[in-house]
Fold:
Amino acid sequence: MTEKEIQESVWIAGLIRKYRDSSISGEEMRKLDEWKKSREENRALFEQLLDDETLGNTLLEMEGADTALHIQHVFERAGIGLPAIEPPAKRHLISRRIVQWLAAAALIAAIAGTAWFFAGTVGKYPADKPVAATDTILPGSDKAVLTLSDGSQVVLDSTMQDVIKEQGNVNILNKSGRLVYDASKLLKGDGRPVSVNTITTPRGGQYQVVLPDGTAVWLNAASSISFPTAFTDRERKVTITGEVYFEVARDQSKPFRVSVVPRAGTAGGMQVTVLGTRFNINAYPDEDAMRTTLVEGSVVVRKAGARMKIVPGEQASIAVNGAVFNKSHPDMEEVLAWKNGRFRFNNTGVVSIMRQIARWYDVEIKTEGDLSAIRFSGGIGRKDNIEKLLEILESEGRVRFIRQGKSITVSASR
Structure:
């Protein structure tokens, strides 16, 4: 890698850093777009540098490592065929200051926060008029309430440690913000009663749980799951509300069944039956339908007399009061974005976007006028503050926000 190439990489890394924190100018955005479009490898690198989960450990990996070779390794992991860095004998040709600068720029791009990218917003942000703000609105975090069979409750958060409760031969553990039901000591037919537990996330909360059979579950904000402390029946049955993602542990002898509770005051829930698979269920009471999206395996979805089997990449949806399932092929990144710590929109209506914002930031949303034709595409990390998100939405010039405390009014721009 020549010094000129290093300098160019530094410049690009700097643009990506600005893109991530929304400080990039219109001209800089145009240059970044040209670079992304020039090679497929560049686009791949750009996506890698937006993935906090993939590159969040870059700084730790740098410790004690050869800086220049590490930078090359980071690019190679992203599939970027940059020219090789000269061997140690020729390393004197590379300015040490520039190499350090590149390392800093790459690291900043890797850990400085998540980016927002909107179709049609090039050169338009930051917004000309900031959103009115008073009190700070924080993003959601890992928090939930565990309700035990006797009605007692345990407040959960990411700081809790060790054993929370022992029920029969099942230990309930909290490991780094994830609740784990350890049934390793459970003896088949030991005669101890099986109790039902419920985990509920508030607005502005999310949580993970590992069920007694090893099934991993992610709960989005304003969601819940009820389940037995041991699966002793012929089926593994759970009940959910809101939005929940499952990675079901395989057990050919015991199908896994999810009962989805519709909105209050309505009848006719939905059931999803699987053996072992990964899927997402979105059944919030303020959405127009209950949706099951399959990532891996196969599931059968039922509601009253309606039935549909879907395969990976498909989504089955049905209205709460509906009698027919509809099948579609959604944007999987959009469906799973919440589970991966992001908002992602693909031509999504602003009213739907605001419902997601209301749940995650625990705010009240009011709408004025007809917003049905206003749609956005893009993404942002769920840990970003709400002002940044609203300002970028507003920057397209199609909506405006008025915020008073935790109440946000959205209307079409005039």
Confidence is low (pLDDT under 50) at residues 53-67, 74-105, 107-133. The two ends are 52 Å apart (CA to CA). The chain has ten helices and 23 strands.
